[in-house]
Design brief:
This protein is mostly beta strands and 173 residues long. The chain is 2% helix and 32% strand. It has one domain: Protocatechuate 3,4-Dioxygenase, subunit A. Strands 1, 2, 3, 4, 7, 8, 9, 10 and 11 form a nine-stranded mixed β-sheet that branches.
Amino acid sequence: MSTATANQTIGPYWHLIEDPIWADLTRFGAQGERIVLTGTVTDGAAAPVSDAAIEIWQSSPEVSDSFPAFGRCRTDPAGSFRFVTLKPGPVPGPGNAQQAPHVAITILARGLLNGLTTRLYFQDELLNETDPVLSLIENEARRSTLIARKVALDTWHLDIRLQGDAETVFMEI
């Protein structure tokens, strides 16, 4: 007979985010346009979430021996995260529409019984205007919560607000 235990919101693999190599998707020698993705996770009171696990994955470029297309890192005491990856390109979407280049993000943290999933789109991408998923968000201010801004030659930044004013749009999966 087994005894029921409490659910773990992040699971038994917290140690995987302690190793910063998991945040570098180019670590196996991936070739392409190398970019840095940064951001800050805050709660409803705009306080930094310093104990979150952030996971990213992308469908472009395709998974290969040199590019896992998946990364994981923890937020630091200021709620910040940082990934090194390759810039994604457009991918097919619903109804054969082209999706704008994007990166999928999941946030896992204390108090979240289920991970929150969202996307990071890139500022000034022409396909943002017709992306079939981004277009579902009618309110321009809400849509902007998914648009990373370029802050340096190869660095993009997106803040993620878990609730409250300017809450990031999260997706049902």
